[in-house]
Structure formats: structure tokens, C-alpha cells
Design a protein that fits this description.
Layout (H helix, E strand, L loop, with lengths): L2 E5 L6 E6 L6 H17 L2 H9 L1 H7 L1 H12 L3 H12 L1 H12 L2 E5 L2 E9 L2 E5 L7 H12 L3 E5 L5 H12 L7 E3 L4 H9 L4 E5 L2 H12 L4 E5 L4 E5 L5 H13 L9 E7 L3 H13 L19 H16 L3 E4 L12 E4 L6 H4 L6 E7 L2 H8 L4 E2 L1 E5 L2 H8 L6 E4 L11 E2 L1 E2 L2 E2 L1 E2 L1 H6 L2 E7 L1
Parallel strand pairs: 5-6, 5-8, 6-7, 8-9, 10-11, 10-16, 11-14, 13-14, 16-17
Antiparallel strand pairs: 1-2, 3-4, 4-22, 9-20, 12-13, 15-19, 18-21
């Protein structure tokens, strides 16, 4: 039996182990899921909601232990980990939205009546990342189950214990076999994609998404992809500079920058650039770096040494190419990278072109909003963006950006009910919202 070790990135200690699923066994896991799906899919929406809603109290009862597990597995500050568990525990509201989204519709016109049903696909493969090890499975698994599908979940090999803990809670309220977990890395992911699944829901890197799409095309399987980001922030003359700087520090360094909508590129009009940079450096230097288990910590470690080295290499290459280090950059032991502010960056540098996924804020001065828009859109990624400035002008600039989600004088996350959506090579399909929930169901129209 091969096992997968989960390592605490802050301490190097082993958190726990899970048994690796041999790739050749994954087809049988999918077959068992398909057998279990028939009875689950035959239940009414109300019955499925009633069953799943019982998991909320279990998540609440285990909130402290689940939060600590997240922190130990991937380094997230404990306060942020508690927030993640709390959001998952509020699933009753999510389930109500899903039930409404999936309910049948009746259309009548000219004496003809059409009933629109939203039926299960069958078996959904959910492949999720490590940076939000409860929330990311939750966004994919819960709507898939609510739509009547069976699910085979492959959590990240970096956070297998958190993924398993999430599934364990749901399996306390689900019929046997409706939700299964497979553990492993690339080989297990490839085996799951080529298995007899009907829909593949994936959150992760752009390159992995390309491989999944290519493999899924052989069977014309439905695919939902949320891929990487290289989010820009545009700061216009007339903006509340301190508010913009506080947002930049928070959104660049939250979760050590390991967030798909982290601010990685900042374009500031020249007239206010010195004040903005000074305020950003000040906010950055106030952050406490350390083990996420310490309540005082605001920035934890990179998830592993590979990610740490990737971030350090981008910083080093930018400095060698002429960027200026304004904060951070000093050596730290282990998997830590101090929150770093770079100025004098250009689009010839990898740190402004390639996804960093680390605590690095890059500031480039621009002469006009036209230049800011051109540079912000100069990327294959288009997940989130933000614009700070006078309200009317900032709205006008926001409408010129290519991202799927744009915040004006705030982050890009929308109100409840708004979809989480990328554009360009940041993926397609939606998370959350009526439209997102409906993607986990096959539409059938019966007309009489």
C-alpha cells in the first residue's frame, strides 16, 4: 500500500497520511458511483436538500478541528481557516439557492406547453486545488450532488486530509457510494478524466486545464474550468490612495498570495504613484509573517518548497532586469517568502506576465488610463480585476477591462447570487449563482 504524506509547510512536520488510489482502480470507483447515483438522482430536490442540509451542523461542530487541519496542511492563518470553514457550514442557504435554480420551469405560448427539467448528468469528477482545501471542493461537490449526480472527488495531493475530511462530513448524511474520494497526484487525475464520467469540474492551473480539455474531448465530456489569474489593479488619479494601498496589500498578500484573484499587477497613474507606493510599503511592513497556527500571523508560508522557489525566482529575475525592491525580499528559512513590493517593473519581466501565486505586489507607473487599460488587458489571463478612483471614471475604466469580474473601489467578488466567472484563458463556466448551479444538470424539454 502506497501512502501520501501531508506536510506542514510552516514546520516540515508530517500532518498525516492517506492511502493512494492506484490509477487502475479508479474506473471501478466510477462504476460504483454510477450504481449509487440512480437512487440518489431519483429523489426529489427537496429530499436531496433535506439530506445535505444536515451536514451544516456537523461542519459547525468540527469547525475548530477543521480550521486547524487547513492551517497545518497548507499554512493558511488560523483566522482565515476558520472563515473558510464557517462559509462551508452555511450550506443551508446555498442549498436553497440550488433548489430554486434546478426547479422545473413551465413555459406556455400559443396553446403549447413546455416543461424544462434539469436532470442529473450521472457521475461528476471534481478535481480541486489546495489553496482553499474545503471551499474549493464545496463549490464543485455540493451543486453536483444537489443536482442528483454522484461525485468522485480528487482533492489536491498537497491537502488530502482536508479534502477527505470534507467528504467524510457529507458521507455522514449521504447514501453509500454517492460521494467517493480518490487520492494521488497527476496519474490519478488523468485516470479520473479518462474514466466513464459525464462531467469534469476542475479548478487549478491553466496548463492542467488544457490537458483535461484535450483528454475530455475524446468522449465529448462536459467540462467546467476555473483556471489561473494574473489580476490587475488600476489606481486612477483622484482615488483614495490609502484605501487603494490597503486593498493592494490585503489582496496581494492574503493567503500568502496563493489566491486565484490575488492582485499581482498594479498600474498607477504617475501623479499619485509616489504616494501610493509609500502607503503600500507602509501597509506591507505592518504584516506579521509566521506559522499560521499563531493567531498573530497574517502571512503564512508557501504551500511547499517548489512554490517558494518559483516565487523567489520571479523576484530575483525582476531585480536582475531592473526592478526596484521597496519591501520584503530578505532571506527567510523554510517555505516563507516575505511580502514583497517591486516597482519599476515592465511587461518584459516574468513577474508581470506569468502567474506568481505568491506574496508579491508589482507596481508599474502609467501616464494615462488608456495605458493602464492596455497593460491590464495585456495578458492571456482574465479572471478578476479592480479599479480605484472617482466613481464614474472608475466604472468607465472597469467596463474596458477584459476580466470576468471587476471590482470598483473594492475587490472583484460579487454579491450573493452573482457568478464567479473568468474570461479568456482563466477558464469558462461559472461557480455559484443560478447559472453556476445549473451547469451541473442536463436540461431536458418536454413539450405538449
Amino acid at each position: 500500500m502506497q501512502t501520501l504524506e501531508s506536510i506542514n509547510p510552516a514546520t516540515g512536520e508530517v500532518v498525516g497520511r492517506v492511502e493512494i488510489t492506484p490509477p487502475e482502480q479508479i474506473a471501478r470507483v466510477v462504476d460504483r458511483a454510477r450504481s449509487a447515483q440512480a437512487a440518489w438522482g431519483a429523489l426529489s430536490l427537496a429530499a436531496r436538500r433535506a439530506a445535505l442540509s444536515r451536514a451544516g451542523a456537523i461542519f459547525e461542530a468540527r469547525a475548530d478541528s477543521l480550521a486547524l487541519l487547513i492551517t497545518c496542511e497548507m499554512g493558511k492563518p488560523i483566522g482565515d481557516a476558520r472563515g473558510e470553514v464557517g462559509a462551508v457550514a452555511e450550506l443551508a442557504v446555498d442549498l436553497q439557492e440550488m433548489e430554486a435554480a434546478l426547479a422545473l420551469e413551465i413555459l406556455e405560448h400559443g396553446g403549447v406547453r413546455s416543461t424544462i427539467y434539469r436532470d442529473p448528468f450521472g457521475v461528476v469528477a471534481a478535481i480541486t486545488p489546495w489553496n482553499f482545501p474545503l471551499m474549493m471542493p464545496h463549490w464543485l461537490v455540493l451543486p453536483a450532488l444537489m443536482a442528483g449526480n454522484a461525485v468522485v472527488l480528487k482533492p489536491s495531493e498537497e491537502t488530502p486530509l482536508s479534502g477527505q475530511a470534507y467528504a467524510d462530513v457529507l458521507n455522514e448524511v449521504l447514501p453509500e457510494g454517492v460521494l467517493s474520494v480518490v487520492h494521488g497526484a497527476d496519474a490519478q487525475g488523468r485516470a479520473l478524466v479518462v474514466a466513464d464520467v459525464d462531467l469534469i469540474a476542475f479548478t487549478g492551473s491553466r496548463e492542467a486545464g488544457k490537458h483535461i480539455l484535450k483528454s475530455a474531448s475524446e468522449g465529448l465530456k462536459r467540462v467546467l474550468l476555473e483556471l489561473g489569474g494574473k489580476d490587475p489593479l488600476v489606481v486612477l488619479e483622484g482615488a483614495d490612495v490609502r484605501a487603494a494601498a490597503r486593498f493592494a496589500a490585503r489582496n496581494s498578500f492574503r493567503n500568502a498570495g496563493q489566491v486565484c484573484v490575488s492582485t499581482e499587477r498594479i498600474y498607477v497613474e504617475s501623479a499619485i504613484a509616489p504616494r501610493f507606493i509609500d502607503a503600500l510599503v507602509e501597509a506591507t511592513e505592518q504584516l506579521t509573517i509566521g506559522d499560521g497556527a499563531d493567531p498573530a500571523t497574517r502571512v503564512g508560508p508557501m504551500v511547499n518548497a517548489r512554490q517558494r522557489d518559483h516565487v523567489r525566482a520571479q523576484i530575483r529575475q525582476a531585480l536582475e532586469a531592473g526592478a526596484t525592491l521597496r519591501a520584503g525580499g530578505g532571506p527567510m528559512e523554510g517555505n516563507f517568502v516575505p511580502p514583497t513590493v517591486l516597482t519599476g517593473v515592465t511587461h518584459e519581466m516574468a513577474v508581470m506576465r506569468e502567474e506568481t501565486f505568491g506574496p508579491v505586489a508589482c507596481v508599474q507607473e502609467v501616464a494615462s488610463e488608456d495605458e493602464a487599460v492596455r497593460l491590464a488587458n495585456d495578458s492571456p489571463y482574465a479572471l478578476g480585476a479592480a479599479v480605484f478612483g472617482p466613481e464614474e471614471r472608475a466604472h468607465a475604466v472597469a467596463r474596458r477591462l477584459s476580466a470576468g469580474m471587476i471590482g470598483v473601489n473594492r475587490g472583484c467578488g460579487g454579491t450573493r447570487g452573482a457568478p464567479w466567472v473568468g474570461a479568456r484563458q482563466s477558464g469558462y463556466g461559472f461557480h455559484s449563482s443560478r447559472d453556476g448551479h445549473r451547469q451541473f444538470a442536463q436540461v431536458r424539454v418536454v413539450t405538449s
